[in-house]
Design brief:
mainly beta, seven-stranded mixed beta sheet, four-stranded antiparallel beta sheet, 11 strands
Amino acid sequence: QVQLAESGGGFVQPGGSLRLSCAVSGRTLDSYTMGWFRWAPGKDRDFLGRITWSGGDLYYADHVKGRFTISRDAANNMFYLQMNDLKLDDTADYYCAARDGGSTVPWKYWGQGTQVTVSS
């Protein structure tokens, strides 16, 4: 069992930045992949990117490349989503997730979400 807890959401003006954190606990994570998603009202779940826990291999969705950066701190069981140049359309609830393996494995573990509001 893996537990995830996001933090760092809030209100930001367009063009601003936020860093979301995800605290991970529960078991050995070497085989796990960690991801970030968001949900906005009336929209489908939006995959943002992922990082492998052991090797730090990264993948980003095209629509956030260059603006969002995922990183991890394995020593402290944390991973992060740095978001820059935020836009109104980035307003959503943001979730971290984990799966034990690669792309054929479903995202089994989810945090409770943290809200990000981009508004002038």
